Amino acid sequence: MSGGVDSAVAAARAAEAGHDVTGVHLALSKNPQSYRTGARGCCTVEDSRDARRAADVIGIPFYVWDMAEEFDREVVQDFVAEYAAGRTPNPCLRCNEKIKFAAVLDRAIALGFDAVATGHHVRMLDGRLRRSVDLAKDQSYVLAVLTSEQLAHSLFPLGDCTKDEVRAEADRRGLAVAAKPDSHDICFIADGDTAGFLNGRLGSEEGPIVDTDGAVVGTHSGAHAYTVGQRKGLNLGGAVDRRYVLSIEPVNNTVTVGPRDALEVDEIIGERPVWNGRAPSSVPFEATVQLRAHGEVHACRARERDGALVIELDAPATGVAAGQAAVLYDDDIVLASATIAATSRRAATAV
Fold it and tell me: Site positions for Interaction with tRNA, renumbered to this chain (predicted)?
């Protein structure tokens, strides 16, 4: 129970369905003041109090579990290390993978519980993860990293309704969080300044911004402050045509920029694939792929090769960043997920 409306209604529905429900709030920081506060948080002291009040209204036991060390190791340190390596991580996905559905689920099973129920907007049908009926709130992308075994011990009571319906139900149930705003930003970056947070962890070292021909067109104060596809904040001056970040090289502290069409890729290699909706296949099969949270989907062909997920897009995509997840779908069914490791543009085939 995060302290938000979704997890409160999910707990209420689970209890109403006859499950023996215990509410758990995760304490993820040894110094809660360093995390977001108020309505913009998700794991703060205020959120813990909101979750406790919701549990009291529902009539279920409530506990706070200290996961600060696990969260720092698996999510915060991973976030910093990924940026230091020139990649763009998704900390919410990593939190779901390593904390909510690994550390928490393991502890829950050890204590005799059958499953972890959350307020994520997804559906489970016939043992497979599917998109929510509310596509604007669908969270299957950040849960696609879960294994089939983890999904077998998970409940998602909200996948059959919209967010507006959840809020209306919370109001009917007398839950004070009915109108509480959603949290959108990274919980462990209190002021929302990701670049400043990374500078504090990684330092700020000036380096060159170069064009595709190697010409220096500007300078930066830390390559980790950039991500593939970025256009704003490059400060290249009017003498340089509009440019986008094409790559980040942390070894030589160089950011490479170029025109938008240089961003186009149509082959993606994903590492550590998780096949949770179908068996791995070395034979290419048709699917769609989502490459960012809330990003568009692309028609593709996919297969497994040497332990990696190989995705060939039917049409080029732009802004595909290493470190993000590539999630395969068959219509609304999640088939597999992998972390993007490399991208390329296939050579045109002569007719």
Answer: 120, 324
Q: What pLDDT is attached to residue 192? A: 80
Residue 347 has what pLDDT? 66
State phi, psi for 30 to the nearest 5 degrees: -70, -20
CA distance 88 to 292: 10
Q: Are 254 and 207 in contact (CB under 8 A)?
A: yes
Q: How many residues does the chain have?
A: 351
The pLDDT score that the predictor gives to residue 351 is: 41
Domain region containing 250: 204-262
Annotated binding-site residue? 192: no
Residues of the chain short of pLDDT 70, as ranges, are 31-43, 184, 238-239, 347-351
pLDDT at 271: 97
* 119 appears as a binding residue in the annotation: yes
In a domain, residue 125? The reply is: yes
- Helix (H, G, I), strand (E, B), or coil: what is residue 106? helix
Q: Give yes or no: residues 252 and 274 share one domain.
A: no
The pLDDT, as a whole number, for residue 117 is 96
Q: Is the residue at 37 inside a domain?
A: yes
**What secondary structure does DSSP assign to 50-97, as a single string?**
HHHHHHHHHT--EEEEE-HHHHIIIIIHHHHHHHHTT----HHHHHII
Strands 207-210 and 216-220 turn out to be antiparallel
Q: Which residues are catalytic?
A: 95, 187
In whole angstroms, what is the distance from residue 349 CA to residue 351 CA?
A: 6
Same domain, 172 and 211: no
| Dist. CA 5–CA 220, nearest whole Å | 41
